[in-house]
Amino acid sequence: MSSGIETFYDVMRRHGISRRSFMAFCGLTTAAMGLGPTFVPRIARAMETKPRIPVIWLHGLECTCCTESFIRSAHPLVKDVVLSMISLDYDDTIMAAAGHQAEEILDEIRETHKGNYILAVEGNPPLRDGGVYCLPGGRPFVDRLKEMASDAQAVIAWGSCASWGCVQAAKPNPTQATPVHEVVTDKPVIKVPGCPPIAEVMTAVVTYILTFERLPELDRHGRPKMFYSQRIHDKCYRRPHFDAGQFVEEWDDEGARKGYCLYKVGCKGPTTYNACSTVRWNEGVSFPIQSGHGCIGCSEKDFWDMGPFYSRLSSVQPFPIEGNADAIGGTVAAVAGGAVVAHAAASAVKHAADKRDIKNERQARADQNTNG
Amino acid sequence: MTPPPPGSEVHAADVTAGDASTSIERTSILVYEGPVRAWHWITALAITTLAVTGYLIANPLPSVTGEASDWYVMGNIRFIHFAAGYVLAIGWLVRIYWAFVGNHHSRQLFKFPFWKKEYWDGVAWEASWYFFYRRWPKKYVGHNPLAQFVMFFVFTLGMFFMIITGFALYAEGTGLDSWQYALFGWVFDIFPNSQAVHTWHHLGMWVFVCYIIIHIYAAVREDIMSRQSMISTMISGERMFKDNRDD
User: Fold this and answer.
1) Model pTM?
2) What is the average pLDDT value for chain B, to the nearest integer?
3) What class has domain A8-228?
4) Which residues in chain B (45-84) have CB-CB distances under 8 A to chain A?
5) Where does [4Fe-4S] cluster 1 bind (chain A) (predicted)?
6) Hey, where are the domains in chain A?
7) Using 50, 70 and 90 to split pLDDT, how confident is the model at A49?
8) A155 near A184, Cβ under 8 Å?
9) Residue among B64, B135, B203 whose CB faces A245 most closely
10) Peptide bond into A140 cis (omega under 30)
11) Dist. CA A286–CA B25, nearest whole Å
């Protein structure tokens, strides 16, 4: 306070969070980010001394499930603290202001914190027909997004919509819904995919950026490695059943009751990078596989076009519904096998005919010689 | 002095006059050097293993009962698949090396004479032989033009595709810090996601199944009907011509 700059800690205290709660938050966040206990005082110190960085939360073409997830962050403390860190001046879903008053706030923050705010984007801009399929505040969302991104420090793409396009980008993508990183190309974009992403993952990503003032380490697709470097399958508690060869074959069979692996009924855990099997959902209560339903791969790009959800093999476009790799490959192999058999039969007939002809020709020549 | 009995120039211990009257002189050329032949059969075994285990990975066997700790069915199938994959990949690397140091036939797999008209004429001619338009095929020391087409576009490119996508999928298990991921992680920049790579890798398996059907059929058929040896060539390395006629 003495320096006149408002720090994270100042903001938290202003929001009525006690010193004790603040330290508990630092401990929780450290654990969530996979850092050792020695980082707790470092995070605390950073939050006490660093000026608060505002976070603007924009909504494009989406369903708001990311926000719904975020405000249900496992520990209420985490939610309170993180929400108080974020500039709640602008978030369509939970802000107090409305109409022109709300829109003005965006411009104001862009001016006052030029190059210093984090832009969190939920949803994506549809580009077809000049972006008219998403018009918050009467303007195409794509314009607002580019404008706000131009003065941001970094952009967080919340959820599968912002990261990959999600269901509104499913074939044939009628509104040309486009992920954020394809529109914002001059700023670092950190992807936090999932439909929605896990609340703890979201709060940890924000906290990491705010406390360390840099993006967490990202993988080749721009996702934070600390949450997206392993598949759900790699840490699934049902993995031993997979390795043993124990599968749910039908939804009402003995295997389903015993909690066997859901691989055969279409679980996309083996091809999905997310932290569901470790962090879990709703205060760590459960996650889809624990509830007996396979993962649908909601944090993966194009998961919406990789169906069906209930079979191991995906349909192959543009073949019919049941056209998976085995159906197509098996058919082609059967045709090839049939063709080979037919060709072999024809070859045998031809070979025999040729042999007979050759013999006859020889005989004719021999006869000619004896006659001549 | 009595003249040598007919057929004695064959110099076989048990040759008869009847045998000798049907004997013909044959030329023989060493085509496939030892390492190429060894690679062929190792690869044949590896591909068979990979196709069977790969199919079972996508379509697992019926569930086993009892404690999970008593079984490792899927684990073993996957281990065999990965081990065979390593054999295939290392074999392929050795085979590529041999293309540099071996005879010129060892390079045929990796070359495609796209711009040579004679080559395409040869393809058309071979196709006409397969469509029964010809009584006799042409003789070739190495692959005939049609075979070269299939070898290059299906086998050689297919091998690269399967090895690269296979190691990319394997890298998912070994992790982002592994050398497999460092070398093959770029595959996931091309395909939208891991599931799509699985689908294409699986389709690739079926391409190889079709390739095997046609490859074995063509080898047997050519061995019987063509003017040169086929199957024994991949065992002895010698291409034997059944006649010395000009085309």
Assistant:
1) 0.90
2) 92
3) alpha beta
4) 55, 58-65, 68-75, 77
5) 63, 66, 161, 195
6) 8-228, 232-305
7) confident
8) yes
9) B64
10) no
11) 79
